[in-house]
C-alpha cells in the first residue's frame, strides 16, 4: 500500500505493508476487529520461516565438534585407565605402601592411617592410598572400622572450618550458579532429604574434597551431613580395601 505525506510542503511517497481488516464474532468475547499484515513473499500467514543454510551448517558443525570432543575425552580416559594409571601405581604407589608396611610397626601404622584419613581431606589431599594400606595391613573388618572412624573426623573438620569462611564460600558459589545448584539441593527439605542429597553427592563424581568446605554454605545440618557423608563413602572405602 502506498500513501503520500506532505513534509514541509514537499510531497513524500512511502510504501507500507498492506493490512487486512477482519471483523469476527465470538459468543464469549463479542464482535472484535483483527488486523493482520499481508506477507509480500506470498507465504501464508503464520508460516514459520525455514532456517537458512548457514544456520544449519553451524548447528551441524557444533554437533560434530561435540562428538569429537567426547571421543577425545573417552580415548584419554582409556589411556589413563589402561596404561598411565597402572604404571603410576606399580612404580610409585605400591613401593611407597610396601615401604610403609615394612618400616613401621602395626601400632604406628594404625596411627598413621587414622591421622592421614582424618587430616588429608582438610588439606585437600586424597586419602585413598591410606585406605589401601589399611586394607593390606589390617584386613577388611578392622580396616573398614579404622577408615570409617577416621573419615568421620575427616568430613567434620572442613565443615567446622567452613563456618569461619561462610560468607566467602557463599560469594564463590554465586560465581558458579550451575555448579552451586547441585550443592544447594542438599540444604533444603527435611532431615531425610538432606541426608539423601548428601549421600548422592558423595557417590556422584562431584569432588568430595570441595564439597566438605562448601556444604556449610548450603545450610545443611551437621547431622544429615555427617550420616550422609559416611553412608556415601562406604562404596569408596570397600573398593579401596578390596583393591
From TrEMBL:
<feature type="transmembrane region" description="Helical">
    <location>
        <begin position="104"/>
        <end position="125"/>
    </location>
</feature>
<keyword id="KW-0812">Transmembrane</keyword>
<keyword id="KW-0472">Membrane</keyword>
<feature type="transmembrane region" description="Helical">
    <location>
        <begin position="137"/>
        <end position="161"/>
    </location>
</feature>
<feature type="transmembrane region" description="Helical">
    <location>
        <begin position="60"/>
        <end position="84"/>
    </location>
</feature>
<feature type="domain" description="VTT">
    <location>
        <begin position="125"/>
        <end position="242"/>
    </location>
</feature>
<protein>
    <submittedName>
        <fullName>TVP38/TMEM64 family membrane protein slr0305 isoform B</fullName>
    </submittedName>
</protein>
<dbReference type="InterPro" id="IPR032816">
    <property type="entry name" value="VTT_dom"/>
</dbReference>
<dbReference type="Pfam" id="PF09335">
    <property type="entry name" value="VTT_dom"/>
</dbReference>
<keyword id="KW-1133">Transmembrane helix</keyword>
Amino acid at each position: 500500500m502506498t500513501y503520500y505525506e506532505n513534509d514541509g510542503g514537499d510531497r513524500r511517497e512511502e510504501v507500507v505493508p498492506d493490512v487486512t481488516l477482519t471483523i469476527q464474532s465470538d459468543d464469549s468475547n463479542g464482535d472484535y476487529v483483527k488486523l493482520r499484515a499481508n506477507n509480500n513473499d506470498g507465504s501464508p500467514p503464520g508460516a514459520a520461516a525455514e532456517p537458512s543454510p548457514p544456520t544449519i551448517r553451524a548447528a551441524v558443525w557444533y554437533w560434530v565438534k561435540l562428538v569429537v570432543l567426547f571421543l577425545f575425552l573417552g580415548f584419554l580416559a582409556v589411556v589413563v585407565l589402561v596404561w598411565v594409571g597402572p604404571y603410576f601405581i606399580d612404580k610409585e604407589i605400591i613401593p611407597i605402601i610396601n615401604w610403609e608396611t615394612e618400616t613401621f610397626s602395626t601400632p604406628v601404622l594404625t596411627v598413621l592411617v587414622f591421622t592421614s584419613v582424618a587430616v588429608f581431606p582438610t588439606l585437600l589431599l586424597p586419602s585413598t592410598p591410606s585406605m589401601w594400606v589399611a586394607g593390606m595391613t589390617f584386613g577388611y573388618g578392622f580396616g573398614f572400622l579404622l577408615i570409617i572412624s577416621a573419615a568421620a573426623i575427616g568430613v567434620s573438620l572442613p565443615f567446622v572450618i567452613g563456618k569461619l569462611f561462610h560468607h566467602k564460600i557463599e560469594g564463590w558459589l554465586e560465581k558458579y550458579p550451575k555448579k552451586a545448584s547441585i550443592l544447594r539441593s542438599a540444604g533444603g527439605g527435611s532431615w531425610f532429604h538432606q541426608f539423601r542429597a548428601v549421600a548422592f553427592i558423595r557417590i556422584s563424581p562431584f569432588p568430595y574434597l570441595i564439597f566438605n568446605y562448601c556444604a556449610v554454605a548450603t545450610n545443611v545440618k551437621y547431622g544429615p551431613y555427617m550420616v550422609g557423608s559416611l553412608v556415601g563413602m562406604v562404596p569408596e572405602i570397600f573398593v579401596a580395601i578390596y583393591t
